[in-house]
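job 3f2a | input accepted
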Amino acid sequence: MLQRLRSILSVRYQWFCLLLMDWFERIGLPDRVFLPLCGWFWLIMGTTNESVTDFKGFGKRFSLPMGFATWCRFRVLRGVSGGSMLRFRRWVRDSTRPNINIEGAELVHEAKAVGRGVLVLTYHHHFNTTFCASIGRFFGAVSVFAGNPAASPAYRTLKYFADIMYAGSEQFFCGGKYMYVDAGKPFGSRAAIEAFKNRSLVVSVHDFPAFRPPSMSGLFLNPNVAYPTGAIDYALRKDIPILFGFLDWQGGDRFRLCFRPCPAAADTRAVLGSYFLVLEQEFFAEPERWEFWGTVK
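job 3f2a | predicted structure (297 res):
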């Protein structure tokens, strides 16, 4: 009962913090001021499930340089992520855009040239929705597999902000859309198949068990998280190119949009193995960029 009460209060406090950030956004500050302001605000006022002690424990467990400084940077990125989510409305309305440096653009163009669509795997960095919107901005039609937000216990309280995040980012998808996935339901929706046939980029930002083929877990940090094996299996069977991608903040209004190639692979496990090597290179060097530490047991 006490744990449930803490959870309810935490969600309501998160709503309050986001409401204040929404007020900051409406003032009309430029991105280079607004986004760092959100980061500092969340560092001081925001809420996260992870404590400094947790981060020190993760550092010892995984031999990573994690402590108070990493915890602070992690909280700042949480705030910047929330700020970028609230900024979608202005980016659409005023045709303003953040400054994004792209690494690996040639990989996307080469994959699109194959003509079968492209599967992009991304995994629990802070800027998933901004990442997807950025792909649409630079590379055309994009559709996105995401967990159904309505399935979250916090959705009722945070619905206003969730709707801003999903509806706002979707306006950059160039005709694509979110395809919500519920835990336990297999891959294979008509919308996804049509997206590949239309040569769209299809981004996977979900991680639920019970996909076809049988779910696979335990390959990266948290043994309780399952991976989108069904989407990967479909791409391999249809010879659809697969890329790895992520977005990170570089201060002010600057972001880095990055793509990495997927080596030729015979099966789903090989694809995931290659992907997690990329994640280790990126996130172990800067652990604050991985937003899923709170699930590590």
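job 3f2a | The chain has one domain: 2-295.
job 3f2a | closed
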